[in-house]
Amino acid sequence: MAVPGALETSLRATIRSIGGHMDVWSVFADGALLHAVVEALADSLLPLRPTVIVGVEARGFLLGGAVAARLGTGFAAVRKPGSLFPGEKTSVVTDPDYRGNRTELLFLVRSVGVSDRVAMVDDWIEMGAQARAVRKLVESQGAPFLGLATMVQQCSEAVADAIPIVASLIDGDTLGDA
Questions:
Q1: What's the pLDDT at 53?
Q2: By the 8 A CB rule, do 89 and 108 touch?
Q3: Would you tell me which of 5, 138, 159, 167 could form a disulfide with 149, CB atoms 3.0–4.6 Å apart?
Q4: Contact status, residue 146 vs residue 50, Cβ threshold 8 Å
Q5: What DSSP designation does 86 have?
Q6: Does residue 177 register a pLDDT over 70?
Q7: What is the pLDDT of residue 175?
Q8: What structural domains does the chain harbor?
């Protein structure tokens, strides 16, 4: 997906390293930039005609919920253990993430059905552990997983193909330390 030059420039200027970690929260603090990110992610998914957008807490909730509202679709939450999440759930444990951690992800069984078309939205993908786990959760309910739209992509081609990645707005490998 071609990202408008102004959006890419704004993301590069806003996502900075703080204490050795890239700060994407600054994007959420800038109303105009957040609006542009949501519009670009939604536009990338529009041709796929999703009926449900999935997001993993926490930043995936924010972006995914906003994209779902923009597209007029439902939103399905993926939560972590210990969260309030009433109803019958299914779960999966992720592969190791970039820190080597595995996380159990919970999904409400009623969140999607076989007639739904499901896409995931997240802020950043590196190892793809959560996205692969979400794909398993969605497909376990009989729904097709269309792919992932993400703000920042910093993963290998093999990971991107396995998800698959529908769109990314910026390449994380090109973001420098501030």
A1: 98
A2: yes
A3: 167
A4: yes
A5: -
A6: no
A7: 83
A8: 5-174 (3.40.50.2020)
Peptide bond into 76 cis (omega under 30): no
Distance CA 125, CA 102 (A): 15
Q: What average pLDDT does the segment 118-137 reach? A: 94
pTM of the model: 0.92
Cβ atoms of 99 and 79 within 8 Å: the answer is: no
Q: Are strands 89-93 and 118-125 parallel, antiparallel or unpaired?
A: unpaired
What is the identity of the amino acid at 147? G
**Please, which residues have CB within 8 angstroms of residue 157's CB and are 6 or more apart in sequence?**
none
More confident residue, 37 or 127: 37
Which residues touch 173 (CB under 8 Å, ≥6 apart)?
A: 154
* CA torsion through residues 77, 80, 83, 88, sign: positive
**β-pair partners for 149:** 121, 167
